[in-house]
Amino acid sequence: MQSTRSRRKVAPGAADAAESGEKQEQLLLSSAICNGEDLGPFVRKAFASGRPETLLHNLRQFSRSKESEIEEVCKAHYQDFILAVDDLRSLLSDVDSLKSSLYDSNSRLQSVGCPLLSSLDSFVEAQNFSKNVDSALQSVSLCIKLMELCSRANHHLSNGSFYMALKCLDSIENEFQDKTPSSTLKRMLESKIPEIRSHIERKTSKEFGDWLVEIRVVSRNLGQLAIGQASAARQREEDLRIKQRQAEEQSRLSLRDCVYALEEEEEEDEGGFGGDDNDSYNYGKNGLLGFDLTPLYRAYHIHQTLGLEDRFKQYYFENRKLQLTSDFQVSSMTPFLESHQTFFAQIAGFFIVEDRVLKTGGGFISKMEVENLWETAVSKMCAVLEDQFSRVQTANHLLLIKDYVSLLGVTLRRYGYTVGALLDVLSKHRDKYHELLLSDCRKQIAEALAADKFEQMLMKKEYEYSMNVLSFQIQTSDIIPAFPYVAPFSSTVPDCCRIVRSFIEDSVSFMSHGGHFDFYDVVKKYLDRLLSEVLDGALLKLISSSVRGVSQAMQVAANMAVLERACDFFFLHAAQLSGIPLRMAERGRRQFPLSKACNAAEEILSGMLKKKVDGFMTLIENVNWMTDEPSQGGNEYANEVLIYLETLVSTAQQILPPQVLKRVLQDVLSHISDKIVDTLLGDLVKRFNVNDIIGIDVDIRLLESFADNLAPLFSDDGANQLKNALAESRQLINLLLSSHPENFLNPVIRERDYNSLDYRKVVTISEKLRDPSDRLFGTFGSRVAKQNPKKKSLDALIKRLRDVS
């Protein structure tokens, strides 16, 4: 390397630069040494650049420069140094005297200090002994405290105070276990504390398991009590509504002399059930029905202390979920009607307990977990209801289950649970319930009608009148009659009314408390079906198959009139129970739903009366149609018919309403008029004269007088309507007795006086009219006699009518 370097030619400028750099480095190194700085950077730099010789060279030069400086300084201070040495030599004598003095002092100190040292050794030994005694006392005191804690822990364990025992164990672990001087005690604590904790966990788990078993029974009783309180509250509401309806009814009837006040009873929540936080639940041993959450919270608290909080929560949730799943089991050995209350009460009690745990557990269970359990329960209950409702074949059974389910919904809604799905299931089976209810009512009505004896009902006491008449508002007067009282209807009427009222109440009971508020239209629809299909059909069957005789037909017609008034009560009663104002129900009133049976009853009564009348009308065959003298007192048939009608009216007016009796009599009189016209029209009468027409006129006048005599019963308009029933026979007789029969051809006169006559009948009957002198051989002596103008007019009428036909 040196040979290579020697061969290089260095330029003069480069050599100068290198020389100035070395001088700079030498100055920096000198400055660092003078300032006492670290020379490490210079050494590293020298070795890094591969020139340590330069560094050594600079250090040697610095050393030589400093040696010369030292030499100059020594030369400068040489005289001072000589003087200092002289001074030191003069001090030697003083040092010797001081040395001897120190020796003497040390001797005296040794002689004095030895006893003190022995005393100090004794003191140190006594102090160490005292420390050992204090340490022993402290150890004993610590052991005593430890034993006291252990004894206290054993006492708590024996008394079942597991939480306090665990607190003692925590104190032992935290304060004494590491400080215990006895290794034996320490080993004992290390082995026994885990065992005690395991024992506490087992005992707590056993108590909690016993509580889980007990809470199932408690939940059932709790659910039954809560649902019972909801039922009592509902009954109080029903009683209040009844009072309100009574007040509204009295107000509607304008009974202003009475003052009615609705007093709502104070509701006392005896058991403290409710959804708020002020419920008086007792968590001690005297809890309501044993509803004690203390074992649960104690177990939870102990598991918290043991650090097993999450595991215990999971254990509780899984066990309660299994219990709920077990509660869903429906026994196939017991009818659901008998077990449904226990079934739903168990579930209600379960969620009442869970609600209380949720609100008082401090996060022990979450709201989401309870909601998940509730959703599972709702879906299962809906499935059970769907299955059981599909099997129920009795309306009353379905209503009992529905009412209890609705009470369950009311109870649990107070705790914040949603019950819409349950109410939807109830609404879904509304039609089936009403079909079953209609079927039951059909059987009951058939039995009631089959037991009817078609006799007026006798009531001996006022309560019977109130029960059978006033309760259905079928009375005709607000005055209480004297007793014994014979009603115009038979026992069938109140029996059917009770059946219909029961139907209304059952229908409203099913529709109410189910989440629906405006259900009157539904109740009205099924009430219409009951009346128009079931009751009307049963009455039609009764009328067509069981009515034998006029008295029975009259009684059925009287019953129908009373039932017509009862129908008004039915719809108003349905409106009241449904919470609909009566004015709205009256505004929406429809036609009489039993019109078919009513018409059939009147028709069969009229038919039987017509048959009776026909028996008397056969006497018309005994009439002499070519008599010389007109009958003054009426023909025999007319008198017999009149006697029968008067007897009929005297009996019928006691049970039949005037309107019904008027319609029946109107039909009978119209039939009598038809029979008279048919007799004159038939083959029985070959010819007749004016005297016979005058006799029939007397007969019709007797019947018209009979109608006039009924004016006090039917009013003048009613009497005129009865007389109008004889219009055809009356107009025919008037035409035959008229002086100008041809006026029948005048449209104005015909419409006014003969509008009920058929011109064909007029022709046939008019042709049979003969003059009194027109007898066999009666024209031999009067061939040249002048023709009667009336006869001439009648012949012209007949000729004109024949031409028209």
Automatic annotation (TrEMBL):
Keywords: Cytoplasm, Exocytosis, Transport. Gene3D superfamilies: Dsl1p vesicle tethering complex, Tip20p subunit, domain D, Exocyst complex subunit Sec15 C-terminal domain, N-terminal subdomain. The keyword Cytoplasm applies. One of its GO terms (biological process) is vesicle tethering involved in exocytosis. Residues 1-23 are annotated as: Disordered. Its main location: cytoplasm. Residues 1-10 have a biased composition (Basic residues). Residues 58-227 form the Exocyst complex component EXOC6/Sec15 N-terminal domain. One of its GO terms (cellular component) is membrane. Pfam families: EXOC6_Sec15_N (PF20651), Sec15_C (PF04091). It is found in: Cytoplasm, Cytosol. Residues 422-768 form the Exocyst complex subunit EXOC6/Sec15 C-terminal domain. Component of the exocyst complex involved in the docking of exocytic vesicles with fusion sites on the plasma membrane during regulated or polarized secretion. Involved in polarized cell growth and organ morphogenesis. During cytokinesis, involved in cell plate initiation, cell plate maturation and formation of new primary cell wall. Belongs to the SEC15 family. This is Exocyst complex component.
